[in-house]
Amino acid sequence: MKIIDWYILKRYLVTFLFTLLILIPIAIAIDVSEKVDNFLEHPNLGIAEILNDYYLNFTIYYANTFMPLALFIAVILFTSKLSNNTEIIAITNAKVSFTRLLYPYFVGATLVTIISLGMNHYVVPNSSKIRKSFEKKYISNAKQKNEFKYVNNFSLQLTDSTYVFIKSFNTETNAGYNFASETYNGLELKTKLFADNIKFNPKDSTYALGTWRLRKVYKNKDSIFRGNKLDTVFNFTPRDLIYKSAFAQEMPSGELINFIDLSKKRGVKNLNAYLVELYKRTSLPIASYILTIIAVALAFRKRRGGTGVNLAIGVGIMFLYVFFMKIGEVLGSVAGVNSLLYVWIPNIIFGILSIYLYIDARK
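Given the sequence above, the corresponding structure tokens read:
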């Protein structure tokens, strides 16, 4: 790399970090003003716990979320400054093409993308576990706390031949009622186990069935067995009963992929909310390249109005990107659609825009 490349790369990274360090304190200040009443409601809650368990992980989450926005604004800011100082003109007069000018920008975008991919796939999910646990304990209201507490009318396929049904289950007490398990040989029912009550023991991962009845189906007759209590094992846990996209945010990508594969085998119909979470962990970091091209193409020309005009246009484009991203996430979570396509729609649309601006800038 030449001196000018190092100069641009340094300005790229320094401005990016500076922009990120401006956005994070703003987000923290807004959150503190909203949550301070919740903190004061718990006299035993100390400052150290708030900082370590909540705001440290809050910072990790929002630093990763703000990366594309900070990167886009940073590129516009320092490229506009280069243009206003006629440094871009000096570079182009030295026979440096627009494509060559992008080289240090792409090196910077690659560094940001690698960091963001690592954060998205591994660091943020583990951090979100601690943050959400804190929120559930100290911040969530009664309605939010009960959101994952009760599961009603749930069915689950454990293997190719075994199915379970639960009328109601409390995931806090690990107890439920009206449980049934059916085992098939092809299309023929072989056994059916009923229980008025069911309780999970997390110590040894067993289930205690109360007032149970077991029906065994033979060719010419059925046999029925009864009892007051039966300890048995099933290939699921109470957490598996709750299919909520919020849990996907707490799973590292390897665990999330295994969970999706296992859920497909168990016959869960709509896993698109989990697929959206998995796909966007890659699509958002890759957007660093697209947003970098757009920002440079907008800001490398000297404009009347200077940095302010470029920044206004950039913020408008960034708003549209976030808008399309949220629309894609919502539509991608609907059953029966191609989640991968909807998650990548913002990158496809703005990728086309970046190609157009790149071709125009080369002229």
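The beta strands are 150-157, 162-170, 175-185, 188-201, 206-217, 222-232. Try to locate this feature in the token string yourself.
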